[in-house]
Each structure stands twice: as structure tokens, then as C-alpha cells.
Amino acid sequence: MTFDLIIRGGTVVDGTGAAGFVADVGIVGDRIHAIGDLSSADARDEIDAAGLIVAPGFVDVHNHASNEMEGGILNIPDVENQIRQGVTTLISGNCGGSPWPLGAHLDAVSELPIRQNYGLLVGMGRIRMEAGVGAKAATGEDIATMQSLAALAMDEGAFGMSTGYFPAFVTTEEIAAVARPIAEGGGVYATHMRSEAAGLLDSIAETIRICEASGCPGQISHIKCWGTRAWDKADQALAMIDEARARGIDLTADRYPYRASFSGVANVIPSALRIEAGERGGMEHLRDADLIDDVRAGIGDYMIEIDGPENLVFAPLEPMPDIDGKTLAQVAQERGEEVWETALEMTLRGKVSSIYFVMLEENIRKFMQHPAVFAASDGHLRVLGKGVSHPRNYGTFPRWVGHYGRDEGFFTVEEVVRKCASMPADKFGLHNRGTLEARKIADIVIFDWDTIIDTATFEDPHHYPEGIPHVIVAGKPGLRDGEVSAESYGRVLRLND
Ligand SMILES: [Zn+2]
């Protein structure tokens, strides 16, 4: 027979954790047809992979590609920062926010030239908004409405539900109740937990309770110990995860390989106040006389959490020379304001994100090496050279593989491919992806174990990684000899696709 594509002579690391072996990979249409000695077989196209690793494409289950404020897939569908890392599938809709309705959004994306596959979680923050619950505890009627919206999202192809930034009035019981139809639909519960700081362990306990009560498999998003008050809690956090797993709860976590986080500067203000301001017609209502004292106090608490305004670096999405790359402490001083005034001002300016240098390298290493933790970026789509960026948008996966796997010796190539491909694919129900075997979809990354490395840094973040010459998406080379293809081969995915 004639194959459409044969990847010849590479070392196949199939994602199961099994030892790599030299073989050819034969593709017909969008599927892997054979793995073995295909030296006598013909193909319409061939890639010489001698000396290279042939592995399942990396699966990034935590990113913000769906985020419209940050560009987003509808605006910049064919950006290259993900495929150049070897990523062939993105699951977005994280941290409680997602497009709505899901089906209409997915239909729109399916018309666009996306370079890698794309699926969604439904954000419970979005569900709460669509249900019109507002800045208060949900009533029984509210919960019933939210449950039907959650069920609808699963019908429209969600891979599960995300939560994040919930104020105290959203109870554990409310979240568990809304997660129940998610569990029934076979989805995962992914959470940016209530606290990653002093309340980290309480938040892990809450996550476990939600998994137990709803029946959802759980995913702790971007697990971290945020700020010095949490730095000694990593071992206890992992012990709680181990204990839950030993009781049969399917709980895992993901981690990006950097010590600074990134989010909208608005997060320095308690979410309950932002929701309240939104209800009143916009963020400028944060200045209302009855809210302003709470805003000041909330920003003060946040500064304690991050150990001071010098750990917050502004990363605006558009050029803003007065704040680009400066710390909050610096900008407040330059403006002759108190820290909280500057923080509020930047929140109201909009399009201002921040990078927070709040984590301990030793903890990141602990998390990455834990058997229930795998790779994810928490990144955004980015146009090369545009805006202030976090290096994770360009370097997450090559850094897991090249820096922590090869250079630091944390993982063998087989182990790190598992953490970058099959573990996330399995957890999020991507049954046709994540490993290389006959009949699976041919989503494949071909990289050089000796040279793969991230090159983006906090100081100079807009750089693609090295050592990843080819990426195959649904059987077609989307990246070949380091060049992206003219056509895009990514697909919109729905659970059970
Ligand atoms: Zn998050």
C-alpha cells in the first residue's frame, strides 16, 4: 500500500512511558496506520527523523486561548507560539471564564485557520453570569438554572468545567451541585483554587470535597505556593493529593515551569467587589463611596499575599511606556500615589496585565516531579514581538523537556513525553490522542532530545523555542523544517471526538 506520509527512522517515544525504539511511523489520512519497519513501503510524502524523537503531540489543557481580552483565538487564530512548542491540542476556557454559548463559539472557530486542535471547558463564572445570579449566594432555583446550563455546555461539547476567582459567597455546595451534570456528561472539574496562598491547604481540601460530592475527576490548575506565607506548604499539599488518590479520587494537577505567574491586574481587587461594580454598570464603580474603603483594604491584603508591590511587574497588552516592565512600587512612586491608588488606576485603564514573582523554585521542582502532576502552560496566544509577554507563552513544553528533563535530569525522555502528552490527554478525555499507536489520530511532535530548549525569558520573552523541527497535526505537517505551513490543520474538538 501507499502511505500518505511516512516519518522515517526516528526514535518512537509513544507516550505510554515505554522505552523508545527506532521505527517508521506510517500515516494514512489523519490516522497512524502502522509503526514499525516500513522501509519497503511507499509514501506520497516523507520526513527523515533519523536522530530525532517522534512523540505524540503535546497537549496543553490549561491556557487562555479563548480569552477575548487577551487577543484570543477568534482574533488571532493562526499564531505560531503553540505549534512551535510541539503543542497539537489546546483545551481552553480555564479559571472560570469561557465563551458562551459554547456551541456557537466552537462553530465560529471551526471556520478559522487554527494551527492546533482546540476544545473548551465551560467556565462556572460564565455560567453564573448567564444564570444572572449576581453578587450573592445562589438560591435553589439559581442552582437548578446553572445545572441546566452546565448540562447544555456538555451537550455542546465541553470537556468539563473550570472555576476560578470565586468570592466567599459562592459555596462549596453550590460548586459541587453545578459540577454534578458535568460528571454525568463525562467531564472534568478543573479549578484555579480559591487560595494558592495562606489558604492553599483549605482550598485543596475543598477541591477534594467537590470531587467527592459531584463525582467529577478533579484537576488542580497551575498548582503553586503563592507568596512566602505558602512556601512551606508544598509537601503537605502533595500529601493531601496522594491521600485523596489513595482513596480512589481521580485528582491530578498541572504546572508551568516558571516562578512567576501572570494575570490581569484587576485581580489585586477582591472578586466580590469587581462583581458588585460590574452589577452597578462597570469597573469605575469601584470608586463608589461605599466600596472604596473595601477596595483599598483588599489591595492591601493582596500586597501582603505577594510580599509587596515590588513583586508585581506590569505587562500591558498594548504599548504603555509609563508602566511597561516596571513594578507597581516603582510606578506608584513615579506617580506620587499610594500603591493602592496606582493599582486601582491601572485596573480601570484596562488591557493591563501583570507578572507576579511570588514562587519558590524548589517548590516548582517538587510539583513537577510529583507523579500526579503534568505539564500545562496557563499561557495565551501571542503574536511574536507584540505586547509584554510571559515566557511560558513560548517555552512551557520545551522547558519541561529540555531544561527540566534533559539538563536537570528530572525526567527521561519517555517520562517527560508522558507528562506533556498522554497524561493530559487521558485526564481530559482525548481518547484518540496522546499516544502513538495504530488507529489514533496522527498528532505528532518530532524533536531533538539533545537540543530542544526554550529561549524566551522574562527580560526578553518573545522567542520561539529550538530543537522542534516538525509538528504533524491530523496527519499533515503543520510545522516542517522549522517553517509553519501555509494551510492550518487544527480542528475543533468536542468531548468524545
Ligand atoms: Zn488561573
3D architecture notes:
- This protein has 497 residues and is an alpha/beta fold.
- The protein folds into two domains: 57-259 and 359-432, Metal-dependent hydrolases (TIM Barrel, Alpha-Beta Barrel); 265-354, no CATH class.
- 31% of the residues lie in helices and 20% in strands.
- It is built from 13 helices and 23 strands.
- The chain has helices spanning 102-110, 124-130, 140-155, 172-184, 200-214, 234-246, 271-279, 292-305, 328-335, 339-349, 361-369, 392-407, 413-427, and strands at residues 2-3, 5-12, 21-28, 31-36, 42-43, 46-48, 53-56, 58-60, 87-92, 117-120, 122-123, 160-163, 188-191, 218-220, 251-255, 260-264, 312-316, 352-357, 373-375, 444-447, 470-473, 476-480, 483-484.
- Strands 2, 3, 4, 6, 7, 20, 21, 22 and 23 form a nine-stranded mixed sheet that branches. A six-stranded parallel sheet has the order 11-12-13-14-15-19, sandwiched between helices. Strands 8-9-10 form a three-stranded parallel sheet.
- A hairpin with a 2-residue loop joins strand 21 (470-473) and strand 22 (476-480).
- The longest helix has 16 residues, at 140-155.
- It is globular.
- It starts with a strand and ends in a 13-residue tail after the last strand.
- The model has no long low-confidence stretch (mean pLDDT 96).
- The chain binds zinc ion.
- Residues 95, 164, 192, 221-222 line the site of zinc ion.
